[in-house]
Amino acid sequence: MANMGADALRARLTNPARIYLWEVEFVNPIGGGNRDALKIQCQSTSKPGRSVGRIHLPYKGTGGVNFPGKVTFSHEWPCTFVENSVDMAIGAALHGWQQAMMNARTGQGGLDVDIKSDVYLRLLDQTSAVVETIKMVGCFVLTVDDIPLSYEDENLIIYNTTWAYDSWE
Fold it and tell me: What does pTM read for this prediction?
């Protein structure tokens, strides 16, 4: 019988993965964005999920048999960035990327290969060594939420964004 006590768990989890040890790298920000600012000023995100469909085959009087189906992704990935008032690099990067995708004034956009870029989410350990790398293939900025401004509040300018991606590996 397996040892199910706390000592067994502690022995197994010598270095549990923390949700606050990660980094995002935008290797080639479209529209001339500052890749270092995007990496450093990204404050929160999530590890993307995926699911596998199920094909159920009924058989005679039994409950049937299940087979794995297609792999599906949500195709959306959230990122939150804090802005720096010195250069406003995050707003400029997000706006530049969206303008490259579809210019709001002219209505003209870029080709698929010109508006998408791979983005890497890296999970780190306590020594900042990379323990897992997730490559989001074909990312682009889908939405940038409104930013409420107010004389009464003492908050930072935060960009809540949603990115679209084709797949992740």
Answer: 0.86
